[in-house]
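dumping this here before i forget
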Amino acid sequence: MFQFAYDNYIKHAFPLDELRPLTCDGQDTWGSFSLSLVDALDTLVVMGNHTEFRSAVKLLMKQLDPNKNINVSVFETNIRGFLYWLFLLRKLICDKSFLFAILYWVLK
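structure:
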């Protein structure tokens, strides 16, 4: 289900914030910073899709302008990041080999 929604967001709505399912087009709702793609990053990692994670990060790095004066939903953005880091922290505590895998992946 996630992959279907993700693929269609990329195809029909990126770089806008959200995919409108009835019209199959995109709209900006939370600050025009590709919110759905930012939101999907943690899910891609949890699902183990590191190749698509790297592709998504590259898309965001090309698309986002840190100097752009926009309003963003800090709560929406932070709560998703918080959940992702809780997941990573649990993995690091429970599985030491995961730490080495992350370090290898980041440093290669």
